[in-house]
Design goal:
heterodimer, A: two-stranded antiparallel sheet, 2 strands, globular, B: Alpha-Beta Plaits, nitrate reductase domain fold, two-stranded antiparallel sheet
């Protein structure tokens, strides 16, 4: 039993986290092209609404809930000290879990019954969907049978996760939890482990930067303002001509270019 | 003044014969792949008709383009920062593949390999998505030449503001007319696709204004498909990336005309540089109320390439001398600005399209007149033939502009397409086109007096020399007159990025990677 606990609650989480970080970065560097949400709405749009909307919004809320319990356990406990507030949190979280379940089941049924979607479905898509369904169902079972998770999560799970983070894993409390909860944890880390091997990576490229950029994007292959003296015939000067020789040797050329860009203003990207 | 250069296009609709050679040239080069079978970066539509995808012009359905809000600013109609991100899990305005058509092929091999039997073997249609047999419901150019049909022509969104009587008159068998509308990406100055892309994958090239989608950065958020009011950004269901017309930029950079233009049988296409003032983009997109002043504002942006001040500002902005020279001999500048013959398609979408159309004159030439045909009827054999309707085509030009006003095609219809509903503006262009014909007829046939031809030209503000130029660029222009492509200076751009000496000798033998001895 110890061996199993050690493997599932220590070995697996570390393997998952390392693979998640290294794998995602490697995949982004090596095959940026494959980072895509791979939307199938173009082939089927109506059922997708009843699947994708509840699933995504629901799981965002649940993820945020787990994150808050992990990052701010004290404030959550303080908030929960009032029974009405605790009930509100628990009931709404449970509702969101049901919403997610309805969503992911709709998505799964849609994916395996629609002949068009079968063409754009691969093995990993199905594995991820089945894992998510199991995870949500087990989560619901846990919520029903081991009440007030928002009260015991900060007390039991958060210390465990923190111990993992500081590289001093302590599973004494978690090991004695009911197996449903342990299974929920194991599945969660399995899903994290699978991230770089599936379409789940689209979660890592959520385009929030869109909110900050100007609407229009114009890209120049040269700095249009610094290219020439308008009184002369058209010729070009290399924008990095001014990079001092010693700097070129000391600093990798990309860095030197970036540095010179800062000095001379934007080079390639213009509003 | 922020002078930039833009590759712009003019399509002369009078010359389009609807042969679809352009579409095929484009398809063979760019979209004959899995996931892209349904895409037609270049397509030719029959007008009146619903087009591709069905009713694309109706933004109540597709929510494309920009809309003006009460504060005088513009926002994307169906996408945008907040709306786009909130709809990212399910875009309610995304067309699905059935709005275009389900791509298909035929099982040709069955014709040869089917076992001997009672019946002739057939090649059944199979879907190019699922590979299973399908009943074809729609295909490329499904409504080709089907003007007058209830399913297509009568559902044309441009008919919306026409009275029922006008619509009815338009679809009488005897009066029916149609023309072709070839469409590619407009490479707009205020592109809605660029603005809608959450990933920032779509961009406009500064040097020539070509709008491109970076396939490495596209993450299938699908907002560009909604945002483009012309529906010229397509979603590849196979790769999960959006794709669009690239104006054959690899050809352009090598000095060749884009494939659709190069192959055009009717020689309807022109391509050239326009210099414009980028400072005016915002006001041109915002300062009109969906009326024809949109066109005036857009024309106001276009700069005279001979103006010394413009040339100086262009040089200051790094516009190459070769590009300025190309702008001076640009056929599009002549059609669009100098002669005022070409107008953008649906300027009210506020994207400032850089593809302009010379509206067709042909269908308006002949109109119907009431005549009494009883005499002729009596001459006919009463059993074999009859002539019991009382109308005749009227091609007379007695009253100079009369035929334009009593057009077979209501002017309102054309105005809805090209001038945001302004009939006067479209009439002005048609009058110019007709004046050129009258002038040329007077020169070559001689049955129209010179005074009359002079009077018509004067009426529309053209000189005989201009009319001859229009005639020559319309009818006689050679390849190099129709396509004035500026040098891309790719080699110089490369030199600016890298010191080419370091990579010299690194190719050819097969070394693809930089040799780095350490960090």
């Amino acid at each position: 039993m110890d061996l199993l606990n050690n493997f599932t609650l220590i070995g697996l989480p570390y393997a998952a986290l390392v693979l998640f970080v290294v794998g995602s970065i490697y995949r982004y560097q090596a095959t940026k092209y494959t980072y895509s949400s791979l939307s199938s709405q173009f082939l089927e749009g109506k059922q997708l609404f009843w699947g994708s909307m509840p699933f995504h919004w629901g799981i965002l809320v649940l993820f945020l809930g787990h994150l808050i319990a992990f990052l701010m356990p004290e404030s959550l406990l303080a908030f929960n000290s009032h029974p009405v507030k605790l009930l509100i949190i628990e009931i709404s979280a449970f509702m969101f879990a049901l919403i997610v379940l309805v969503g992911i089941l709709t998505l799964f049924i849609r994916r395996i019954t629609n002949p068009r979607l079968q063409v754009v479905t691969n093995r990993m898509d199905l594995i991820v969907e089945i894992l998510l369904i199991l995870e949500v169902i087990i989560g619901i079972v846990v919520a029903l049978n081991f009440r007030w998770g928002s009260a015991w999560f900060p007390a039991v799970i958060t210390p465990y996760l923190n111990s993992l983070m500081i590289l001093q894993p302590d599973i004494s409390a978690v090991a004695s939890l009911p197996s449903a909860i342990k299974l929920h944890i194991v599945l969660a880390f399995t899903i994290i482990l699978l991230f770089p091997f599936t379409r789940l990576v689209h979660f890592l490229v959520v385009p929030l930067h869109y909110l900050r950029r100007p609407y229009q994007r114009v890209i120049w292959s040269w700095d249009k303002k610094q290219v020439r003296n308008p009184d002369t015939a058209w010729s070009i000067t290399r924008p990095y001509e001014g990079v001092p020789n010693f700097l070129q040797k000391l600093v990798p050329s990309e860095l030197a270019e970036k540095y010179m860009q800062k000095l001379k203003g934007p080079f390639r990207y213009f509003k | 003044m922020d002078v930039r250069s833009q590759i712009s296009m003019v399509f002369h609709l009078d010359k389009c014969i609807g042969c679809h050679t352009c579409s095929i040239a484009c398809k063979n080069i760019w979209t004959d792949r899995k996931g892209a079978e349904y895409m037609w970066w270049n397509n030719v539509e029959t007008k009146p008709g619903t087009g591709y995808p069905g009713k694309w012009e109706d933004q109540e359905i597709y929510k494309g383009g920009w809309k003006k809000s009460s504060g005088g600013k513009i926002s994307l109609k169906g996408a945008g920062k907040l709306r786009g991100l909130l709809n990212i899990f399910h875009n309610p305005h995304l067309p699905v593949i059935d709005d275009y058509y389900e791509p298909f092929t035929y099982k040709y091999l069955d014709l040869i390999e089917a076992p001997a039997g009672e019946d002739q073997p057939t090649a059944r249609p199979v879907s190019l998505i699922t590979g299973k047999p399908i009943d074809i419901k729609m295909g490329p150019n499904w409504d080709d030449d089907l003007s007058g049909t209830p399913d297509y022509a009568r559902n044309d969104p441009n008919l919306q503001e026409l009275s029922p009587a006008e619509q009815e008159a338009m679809f009488q068998l005897e009066r029916m007319a149609f023309f072709y509308l070839p469409r590619i990406c407009n490479h707009c100055l205020n592109p809605a696709c660029v603005a809608s892309c959450p990933s920032g994958a779509i961009y406009k090239r500064g040097e020539d204004g070509v709008v491109l989608i970076n396939q490495e950065v596209c993450r299938a958020w699908r907002m560009c498909v909604t945002a483009c009011p012309y529906k010229k950004s397509y979603y590849n269901w196979g790769t999960g990336k959006s794709e669009k017309c690239i104006l054959c930029y690899p050809r352009l950079e090598a000095g060749f005309a884009p494939a659709c233009m190069h192959s055009c049988v009717g020689r309807i296409r022109y391509l050239g540089v326009l210099l414009y003032d980028a400072d005016k983009i915002e006001s041109a997109a915002t300062k009109h109320n969906n009326d024809s002043s949109a066109i005036d504002l857009q024309m106001d942006m276009l700069l005279d390439p001979f103006d010394p001040e413009v040339i100086h500002s262009a040089k200051e902005n790094g516009v190459a001398d070769s590009t300025i020279k190309a702008a001076q001999s640009s056929p599009t500048y002549k059609f669009v600005k100098e002669w005022g013959l070409a107008v953008p398609l649906h300027p009210e979408f506020r994207t400032l399209p850089m593809l302009f159309y010379v509206p067709p004159l042909l269908p308006v030439m002949a109109s119907l007149s009431e005549v009494n045909n009883i005499k002729q009827e009596k001459k006919l054999d009463s059993i074999a033939k009859s002539w019991n309707d009382n109308w005749l085509y009227d091609t007379s030009t007695e009253e100079l502009w009369g035929t334009i006003e009593q057009a077979r095609f209501p002017l309102k219809y054309m105005a809805n397409m090209f001038t945001a509903g302004d009939e006067e503006k479209i009439k002005e262009i048609l009058k110019k086109l007709m004046a050129v014909r009258i002038h040329r007829r007077s020169v070559t046939v001689g049955d129209i007096s010179e005074e009359r031809s002079q009077a018509t030209l004067k009426d529309v503000g053209l000189t005989p020399e201009m009319a001859d130029d229009i005639f020559s660029l319309t009818a006689l222009a050679k390849f190099d007159d129709r396509f004035v492509i500026p040098a891309a200076h790719r080699e110089q751009a490369m030199e600016m990025m890298d010191f080419v000496g370091t990579t010299k000798g690194a190719t050819g033998f097969g070394i693809k990677q930089d040799l780095k001895r350490s960090l």
